[in-house]
Each structure stands twice: as C-alpha cells, then as structure tokens.
Design a protein that fits this description.
17 helices; mainly alpha; single chain
Length: 406
C-alpha cells in the first residue's frame, strides 16, 4: 500500500473508486446510468494508465518531507511568509465587502463588487499550511497563527471546499512527516505527528457536517423514488435510508454529482450555457446564474468537473476534458518528483486536491485555478530574481525553488 501511495494513479483512481462504490451503494442505478458511469470511470482509468507508463515517476514518502523542507533558501521563506501575511491581512476587507457569512449563512455564495476579487485571494488560505511548515523553525508562533487561520477563515466564510483543501494540505504534510526517516528517530515528535493525523481524521468530518447543517438546514432531507426515476426525488437504496442524518449529508455530497452526470447523460440533454459562462468569467452577466439542466433535484445541481463539457457537446468533449486534466496533473507530478522544490510542492498539493475532487464541481477549468497556478510561478520567478540580484549566498536554487535531493 505504501508503494501505491507514491504513484500517479493513486491520487486519481482512489477517489474515483471510493465515489463510485458509494454511488452504487446509495442509489438504485438504471442500466443507462450504469453504462455512463462505466464510461466515466473507464476513460479516467485508461488515461491514468497511459500517463503512468509515459512519465514513470514515484514519490518516496520516507524522504519527501526532508527533501522539501530542509533546504529552502531564506529568500523563498521570506517571499512565502509575505504571501501568508497578505492573505490574512485581506480577510477584514473580505468581511467588509462581502459580509460576515457566519452570521448570515444564506448569503455564503454572494459577493459584491471588488469583494469578489478579494475573495479570490483569501480563498488561497490553504497555502498558509505548507507555508507554516516552511517558517516553523524560526517563527513557531507565526506558523501556529497561519495554521489556525487556514482553518478558521474557511469556517468564517462557510466555505467547505476551502476548508477541505486546508485539511487536505495539513494531512498530506503530516503524513509526509509521519513517514519521514528523521521523525521516526524522534519518538516524542513521532507520537505528536501520529496524534495530529488521527485528530484531523476526526475533526474534518465533524466540522464539515456542522457547517453543512448550519448552512443548508434540512435540505439534506429528501424523498426516495425507490427504483424509479422521478423528478424531485432520488432513487435511494435501503442502505442510504438507514444512515443517520450526518452520514446522509456526507454521502449525498460524495454521490449526487455522479448521479447527476449519469442521469443527464442518459437523457441526451445539451445546454452550452454551463461551459460558456464558466470559461467567460468577465461576461457572466450575459448568462443565467443557474442555467437549466434536468437534474432530479434542483438544489443538488453539481455534476462533476466534466458536467459542463457533457452539456456542451456530449461524451467526446468529456473525454477531451479528462485528457487535459490527467495530462496536467501528470506534468505537475513529474516536476515535483524530479525537483522536490517548495514551489513544485505547492503545485503538487493544489493539483492533488483537484484530483481528489474531480467527481464534484468544476475546480480545474476555471479562471481562479489558472490564476493560482500563475501566482505560484510568479512567486518562484520573483524569488529567483531576488536571489540573482542579492550578492549574498541564499542557498541552492533548483527548478522547484528548493533542494535537488534525490
């Protein structure tokens, strides 16, 4: 299993397998929906196998943490610490322009004027976690502040997606420390890291469910249509019905996007407004806020990363979109395995999270994702420029902004 965790396929296929297992357990799936689910999972599996054979790289978790964090140049630490303070400093402006969402959960998705652009910066609070571990040796209290803010800011925004991303980054870093040879030689620190991993596994679903109930109330109480397709209901199984409400919330979050994708694919319905509005962020006023699609329950309207492509032109466009997603992650994965640098690490964490949530809502083919990647490259180039300009020895520069240990 430890060998699998270092492979490209692990980060894409494990979430797909878990999501589909829950999908088949929770819904009475029609033969047409089953066929389209096989197309979805089979296409991703084919592409993952192709790029796995093409790139042939693995992550060695026993040396990952030391390679990334033990040889970061002071300039890199300075630049990334400034970014962390900048994100935190903008949060009061976020509250001023967009409102305090925790006190008015019904408006969690409403943004106003310049507040929309400020939110694009504050939602990068997940980066506070890897930055905290960069500066923790010399600035332990600042590092703790960064980690606390990475969790509190999404809660105050009622942004479960950003909360998941912060937890994901924290978990991957703790896991890398847990597997590190250096940490295993320090029994006290090893026990603390192990305790931190278990704590995250308990805290994440607990906070996720609490925010869900606070934000959405009783919207997770839905009627079952049994083994029939009836609009306004879900074809729920007895397995789903016997789950407690907190588990039902998580199960619906995981499975309803695949249900929507397969059901709409079986109807042959097309509507190009979904994709056009998504890739035209500066002219969204020309499109409906919620374009129509024949989902079974209107408030459960997400349908995976590839849903807009399905609605635009059917399955061929879905396959093309999948190709570029897997290609991009493969390139990022290869770069990180080769460089083990801090900026490649940030990109890896970001894209590994995107792979984890491919089966939910669009997060890859959006302007914010593209600009986040551009920002990481700008930070890398800016750090490289400062190293070149300053006459002091700030450490070795690799393609990833850190060491080149193998």
């Amino acid at each position: 299993m430890s060998e699998m965790k270092g492979r490209l396929s692990f980060y894409i296929m494990l979430p797909v397998i878990v999501q589909f297992a829950m999908f088949y357990l929770c819904f009475n799936v029609t033969s047409e929906m089953f066929f389209y689910s096989l197309f979805y999972g089979g296409s991703i599996f084919f592409l993952v196998c192709f790029f796995e054979l093409l790139f042939r790289k693995k992550i060695n978790y026993t040396s990952l943490y030391d390679n990334v964090y033990n040889n970061i140049a002071p300039i890199d630490k300075f630049v990334l610490k400034l970014l962390g303070f900048f994100v935190i400093a903008l949060f009061p402006l976020d509250v001023y322009f967009n409102g305090f969402k925790l006190l008015n959960p019904a408006t969690y998705a409403e943004f106003y004027g310049v507040g929309r652009f400020i939110r694009h910066v504050t939602t990068m609070c997940w980066m506070l976690v890897p930055i905290a571990y960069i500066i923790r040796a010399k600035n332990p209290w600042v590092a703790r502040l960064f980690i606390v803010c990475s969790i509190l800011l999404p809660i105050m925004m009622i942004d479960r997606n950003r909360l998941l991303m912060s937890f994901f980054s924290y978990f991957v870093i703790l896991y890398a420390r847990f597997r590190s040879h250096t940490i295993r030689t320090r029994p006290g620190e090893f026990r603390r890291v192990k305790f931190g991993l278990y704590s995250l596994l308990i805290l994440l679903p607990t906070i996720f469910v609490i925010i869900g109930f606070y934000r959405s109330g009783t919207s997770f109480s839905i009627d079952s249509s049994g083994d029939r397709i009836i609009y306004g209901k879900f074809p729920l199984t007895d397995f789903f019905e016997m789950m407690p409400p907190s588990f039902k919330q998580i199960l619906l979050y995981i499975t309803s996007p695949i249900l929507n994708f397969t059901h709409v694919a079986s109807t042959g319905f097309l509507n190009d407004q979904f994709l056009l509005s998504q890739i035209s962020p500066f002219s969204r006023d020309a499109y409906p806020v919620y374009p129509f699609s024949p989902v079974l329950i209107v408030r459960f309207n997400v349908g995976t990363e590839f849903y807009p492509f399905l609605l635009y032109g059917g399955l061929p466009y879905v396959f093309i979109a999948m190709f570029f997603v897997v290609l991009t992650f493969s390139v990022v994965f290869y770069w990180f395995c080769k460089s083990q640098g801090v900026y490649a690490w940030l990109l890896f964490l970001k894209f590994a999270y995107l792979m984890l949530f491919l089966g939910f809502a669009p997060q890859f083919y959006i302007l914010f994702n593209f600009m986040s990647v551009v920002l990481i490259f700008i930070l890398y180039l800016f750090s490289a420029f400062l190293k070149f300009s300053m006459p002091v020895n700030t450490g070795k520069t690799s393609l990833g902004g850190g060491s080149d240990r193998k």
